[in-house]
Amino acid sequence: MTVAAAEPPRAPLAQRLGTHLASYGGFIPAIVLLGLFFLVPLGIVVCYSFWETIDYSVVHHWTLDNYHYFFSVSAYVTTMWATLWVALVSTAIAIGLAFPFAYWLSRYVPRRLRLPLLVLVIVPFWTSYLLRVYSWLTILGEKGVLNRLLQWTGITHHPLSVFLYDRPAVILVLVYLYFPFGALTLYSSLERFDWNQLRAAMDLGASPLQAIVRILVPQIRPGLITAIIFVFIPILGEYLTPQIVGGTGGVMIGNLIVNFFQAAEYTRGAAVSLLIAAFIVGLLAVFRKSLSSADAYGA
Amino acid sequence: MARDLEVLSTRARISRALLGGYALAIYVFLFAPIVLLVLFSFNANRYGTFPITGWTLTWYRQAFDDYQVHDAVVTTLKVGLQVTVVSTLVGTAAAFPLVRSRLPFREGIRILFILPIMIPGLLIGVALLVLFTSTFHWTLSPETAVIGQSVYTTPFVILLVAARLQGFDRALERAAADLGANAFERLRRIVMPLILPAVFAGALFAFTLSLDEFIITYFLIGGHNTLPIFIYTQVKFGITPEVNAVASMLLAGSLLLLAVAFGMPQFVRVVRRAFLHARVA
């Protein structure tokens, strides 16, 4: 409607409407789908987070109680910080592992082998997310491969349960899950880097590390930021990994949200959801430039 | 090409060798869990672990005879097909104005279209749960799961088709118009054949994502099971070789789709263009 009004009048109304329908009509189904089933529910969650639940029913009474409640329970606040910590550490490790890999792929691998090797990285990513979490149970569990190996080599005599059901297991699996994302994003950025610049820097006396830090990294910065953000954000909303391999020690904020909703405490769950959503949208807004920059993917 | 033939110093050779070994270790890390999963599904050992006590198809037979697995497979395929149809149609339609119109809020709409990919599925799941149960008072069913999954898969179709349309020479359409083709003929004879690989890639993406989707489905499907939900409910009771067998079959399904996709050169080109060389937001 605003669309039609914004255009200067040129042709008869019916004809103009026809043209607009032809130009913009394609948006209608998507706007209905994503508006009604994405924006509206998010809006409802925002409202719920400021309403009250009394006797299992939601009362439209504006209040900050849900937020007060969340921040008054120390276990929840601890979980929130733990989630941020786990997300930071996992992102750092995943990107730290992905960088040398992407560097190798874009610098030392012959051009015709690059795509197949890249596809090999994506294959696990394409397979089920649940299965990739689940498969670690067969490795880290009490009867898992790691314990069998330790017993077989005589390092221990009893199965150890320390590998699973705590924060390190969660971090390991998260790194495993999100490494391909980091590698793919970094590769697409490094692929466009002119390696002669690195050689020139070293000819001028820079050590390889200096050359990478001072010449390479600044140039791929948008790609690096994109990789970090794209790994960090989904980890914040993780539910399945802590649920399956985390035990009580590895609980993340996603598990809290699910617990609230399963206990029909919709308004409290909504408040926690909104905290995460607001944080994510904030991150996206702050790093908007890097994310939308053509350089990130070297358009 | 010149880069491949470059004469490397000794130090560069060493770093190349070290990084090569490192990359190999990364591939082992990426594939070991999946390979073990499949290995144990053929292992006679009923704890689903080492040692390998013999090879068997028992677990697969058990899985095939399990009516719960049957139901889950049927639901998964039904939901997957519906999601594919919805997101392919909606996504393709939306890609046109996104690329071609000069809408004042095009940036806003673009962000709306990308956001469902960026926001964790968990939040989409709970938000829709509230909408469906508290606001609409709907009963949860595979259909509500279809809606939820479509919210998440449609943006992928939009991205793929939009990337293809961006590289589309509009002179072809003008030429067809000059030669007397009407809008419908232009769409059918010029535009559709050119964007078809992207539409197909989008459909394949949507189907695969739907096949494996867990968290949104978990909240919205009510009493029904898709394969991932079924596996999850089983994992609560510990891992069994039967679950390994079901998991391996799901894996085989995804890989088959991937092989089909990458067997087609157009698919590779379209996906490369959309995800490696396109703007994100």
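qc> Chain B has one domain: 67-275.
qc> done
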